[in-house]
Amino acid sequence: MKLSNILNDITTINFQDCDIANITLDSRQATNGFLFCAINGHNIDARKFIDSTLENNVTAILADSDTTEDYVEIIQDTQIIYIHDLNSKLSKIADNFYQHPSTKTNIVGITGTNGKTTIAQLVGQWIDLLGFKSATMGTIGNGFYGNLVEAANTTGSAFDIQENIANYAEGNAKCVTMEVSSHGLVQGRIDAVKFDIAAFTNLSQDHLDYHNTMKEYFQAKASLFTDFDTKHKVINIDDEYGKKLVDLIEDNDTII
Predict the structure, then answer these.
(1) Contact 81, 11 (CB under 8 A)
(2) Do 82 and 104 sit in the same domain of this protein?
(3) Cβ contacts of 146 within 8 Å, gap of 6 or more
(4) Which residues contact 109 (CB under 8 A, 6 or more apart)?
(5) Could you tell me whether strands 173-179 and 22-24 are parallel, antiparallel, or unpaired per DSSP bridges?
(6) Which one is predicted more confidently, 153 or 164?
């Protein structure tokens, strides 16, 4: 794929177009044909690995800009495209690279403190019983129903998510159920995913080491319903936060 297609709607600066065979956040994979995305992450600033990827003949590099401006730098005949707030654009970059995979199947996003895994697995089983293929991404693994592979996180990286959906769509999955964590929402890992259905289970005290307050935790979960154009929203109103969530949603016709 052309780099210009991958960066469509990402930046307006001029850069040299080239062919990209794959994209990665892992500098160890970044060799010839790869686009390496060096983000200044929560724990590690991947920009410190740029030199090693240049030694491995990486084709192009995207890196977090320390300014509000995007710009290009050429080192060892390799272009490094610095983009402001790159981390927030990774989902869109991956969506472009994998050619908008979430539009090619039905995506069900499930969020809440408890019950995400159970619901994701039950929906997958129901789809399977109806004679269709289904896939799941979540706590106990990713993959087609009955053939899950262990996953590192409830909600994977922006690149992992889009790659997985692309593989499931190509494998004729009728539906993909996804456990959506509050971390994944806040960090923008699912920003470019097109959800058909969003479901809310419940909310109780959890992850306050990350979100600080219950209000922030709720706002993170609520964003799946307020910031995404989903066709249907399934909300547990027996939960007090479910009732609050219903009040936040302007288009009540989408609520079940």
Answers:
(1) yes
(2) no
(3) 128
(4) 178, 180, 190, 193, 195, 197, 198, 199, 224, 228, 230
(5) unpaired
(6) 164
Domain match, 23 and 67 both: yes
Other Cβ atoms within 10 Å of 12 Cβ, number: 7
What does pLDDT average to over the chain? 93
Q: Are residues 65 and 179 in the same domain?
A: no
Give the pLDDT score at 154.
Answer: 75
The rounded distance, in Å, linking the Cα atoms of 194 and 248 is 20
Q: What number of residues does the chain have?
A: 256
The CATH number given to whatever domain includes residue 35 is 3.40.1390.10
Q: Is the same domain home to 117 and 220?
A: yes
pLDDT in tens, 149-162: 988 777 889 999 99
| Per-residue pLDDT tens digits for 201-254 | 999 876 666 767 999 999 999 999 999 999 999 999 999 999 999 999 877 666
Q: Closest Cα partner for 237 from 211, 205, 200?
A: 200
Please tell me the number of Cα atoms within 13 Å of 89 on its side-chain side. Answer: 21
